[in-house]
Each structure stands twice: as structure tokens, then as C-alpha cells.
Amino acid sequence: MSKIQNYSEDANERGIQIRRELFGAERIDKQLQAKVDPFKEEFMQLLNHYCFTEIWMRPGLPRQSRSLITMSMLIALGKPQELRLHISAALRNGVTRDEIKEVFLQATVYCGVPAGVEAFRCASEVFAEIDAEVTT
User: Fold this and answer.
1) What are the structural domains, with CATH classification, of the chain?
2) DSSP state, residue 46
3) Phi then psi for 11, rounded to 5 degrees?
4) CA distance 45 to 132
5) How many CA atoms lie within 13 A of 79 on its CB side?
6) 31 to 100, 127, 130: CA distances (angstroms)
7) pTM of the entire structure?
8) Cα–Cα separations (whole angstroms), residue 66 to 6, 56, 93, 117
9) Which pLDDT tens digit goes with each residue over 59-109?
10) Which of 9, 53, 65, 80, CA to CA, is 20 to 30 A from 89?
11) Are 62 and 52 in contact (CB under 8 A)?
12) Contacts 24+ apart (CB under 8 A), 32-38
């Protein structure tokens, strides 16, 4: 196995910690245990190092802002699977459902109605899952 450039085990661990905070420790720990795939190992190092350690840990924006920006970009790119994950992460970061709705309304105007429809569908599904967990 080769390592990504400028890779450090410490940065990898910090990236994993950020992922746990954003997406939930249970989800990330399950992924780490189930997917020890040598083919994707360097890709995961890249994500942990650059995406989560280098970007999500930067002091320039609060996590709530990063979540709102990320959701906007995922809507524009038409990535509903990733959008669902980041809706959950946004809620964990303290973003409210009303703030998510406002971002989705604005994205609908700038990205198109079909993108907005998909975004609201994703949010409704995530909210329903969360609400079902709370009531059980």
C-alpha cells in the first residue's frame, strides 16, 4: 500500500474523528470495520486527510456554514445520496430544519426546480428517519 502525499497517521485519525462528529460515531465505526478494502484504502486516506482534516477543521467558517455550503453544492451537483448524509450532519452541527429549508429554496431558484424537488425529497426522508428514531 502506498500513502497519499503529505499523509500522516495523525491527520488520518483527526479526519476520522471529524467524520464521527459529523455523521455519527456508530455509522463511521461500522464503515471502518466493514470496509477494509485495499482498493479504497488510499481514497479513504485522501478523504480523511484533505476533506475532513484540512477543510472541516479550518477555523475560517463555523461547521454550520460549512454544512450549508456543502448541501448547496451537492444540490447543484445532483448528488442525493451524499446530500442525505450531509443533511444529517448539518442537524448534528446545529443547523435547523428551517435553515435547511431556506438553503433548499434558494438552491431551487439557482439550480432548478428538479434539483429542489430532489433536495426536499431527501430532507423529508432524513427528517422522517430522525423523527422515527426519536419516537421509538
Assistant:
1) 9-55 (no CATH), 63-135 (1.20.1290.10)
2) H
3) -65, -40
4) 34
5) 12
6) 26, 22, 20
7) 0.86
8) 24, 7, 9, 22
9) 999 999 999 999 999 999 999 999 999 999 999 999 999 999 999 999 999
10) 9
11) no
12) 38/1
